[in-house]
Each structure stands twice: as structure tokens, then as C-alpha cells.
């Protein structure tokens, strides 16, 4: 999510004959980029901007720590062990504002994207903070039998699949 993309599929698209009027990777009718049937098309490598790859890696780290956060919250039954709850609300608000101001879209689309971004990454942040605090107190959870490496590997795959799904469905107009 996010639109601070300046990669080849974003900057100057349409003016260079690429067939994308808005630079968003959606081919114009009659260009060679699509069949015109309205089905899902896989993203190209050019769609994976630096911002998208970065947010995918951050998402993977948050997801891995969030796994341990779910375990910690399940054990105690309370959120707010790592940070007081107002800091979580502040983090979600900052994510919302950054995404809203970073969007190249206007109106309802920008608002919906900002809400979704803040909800997903805000939730991951809350769980990651709780998981990080839990791991700080008990690092054996992640170090025993290298289970932390496995958790991060799974989180990285899930995060990459989520980003590709986002590109396929949202960015490509599916």
C-alpha cells in the first residue's frame, strides 16, 4: 500500500508510450498489456517499487513479531504490556495520516486506502510491540531451535504474497 512510488511504472508513464495513462500499471484499452477481458493480470517486476518492497519487508518483521505478540496477549489476556494504549492509538493515527498524505488518489479512494493501511499496519504494530516486549523478557522463545528464523521466513512469504495480491487486485484494477 502507499503511493510514494517513483519507479518505472509510476513516473512518466503514459507519456513514454508505455500504455499506462496514470502510471498505475493498468494498460489502456488497445495496448498490448492486457486482454481487455477485465480478468486479473499478474503484476510486472516494474510494479514492485522500492516503496512496495520496503513496506513488504517492514510488514514481514511486524508480522513475525506480531506472532509472538499474539502469544503474549493470549497468555496475559491484556494489550498494553509493552506500551500504554494511547501510544498505540497515536501510532495508528500517524500511519493513517502518512498514508493519506502520501496517496496519489483523491477522495474516497485515498480515504479507503489510508483506513485499510492504518488498520493493517496499526494492528501489526500493536502486536509487534507486545511481541517485542515478550521476546525482550524471554528471548528463548525465538532462539530455541532457531524457531525465530522459521517464523520470520513464514512471515516474509505471507507478506510478499499479500503485496502481490494487492498489486494484482487493487493496482491492476481487478
UniProtKB/TrEMBL annotation:
Residues 14-39 have a biased composition (Gly residues). Residues 1-45 are annotated as: Disordered. It comes from the Archaea. The chain crosses the membrane at residues 50-70, 82-101, 108-129, 149-169. Keywords: Membrane, Transmembrane, Transmembrane helix. It comes from Natronoarchaeum philippinense. This is Uncharacterized protein.
